[in-house]
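To close the section, here is one more complete example, presented without commentary so you can practise reading it yourself. The ligand is zinc ion.
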Amino acid sequence: MRICVLGSGSGGNSTFIERGGTALLIDGGLSYLRIRQELETLGIEPRVVKAILITHEHGDHCSEAGSLARRFRCPLYGTRRTLAALRWSLSGLEELRPFELGQEFEIGDFRIASFPIFHDAAEPCGYLIRSEEGTVGLATDLGVVSRAALEALATCDAVILEANHDLEMLKTGPYPWELKQRIRSEVGHLSNDACGEALAELTRSGRLRTAFLAHLSRTNNRPELALQTVQSYLDGRAELHLTWQDRRSELLIL
Ligand SMILES: [Zn+2]
Ligand SMILES: [Zn+2]
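Output:
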């Protein structure tokens, strides 16, 4: 199973997961050209992409979803209310596959499950992607890590979890007060500390060994600060990888 975060942040998100010639993209916030270029650096043909899964309807996760589904000629999956919220931008797409939160389904060798997250969107979700080699979990854009999210992620060998901001940088940074409040709220974004606490819990109670830090703010965070803060919670119990807005992460093979 190969995992790579192709791009992550408020400028656009997409994650690639492949096994046995079948690949999924989680979120479609990057252009077809950009995704094709990133896949090329991995020596991967675009035709392996067989499905796009959407976490929620915000533009940085699905501004390109319709055009990606057309270019890759693959179906688009999302919770029922997420796809309903996107219906105008997806009109004319033939292969829309709405599902109920928590309902499991299969794509190729993958078994896919979803779990609810707290975020200011219609019906946002995180994903669990299972294969014979293990389970990968993804949760970005969440105000808090709920008990349900922790329980779902505890089954994962690797997770892609948001480390959006450093609290002090957000507090003293240039954002207007209302936006700061929204980011810090229960339906906003996860701080480096909250990410570190959740990962520490997952290494203790779950099987987590590898984590990608995702959706880093370019204004309210710095990659080395995110890494250092999260590391301080983990005592080396999990291997950490950074993700980037303008280039792909390292490739993880599970
Ligand atoms: Zn986002
Ligand atoms: Zn969002």
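Once you have examined the tokens, check your reading against these statements. The mean pLDDT is 96. The chain has nine helices and 14 strands.
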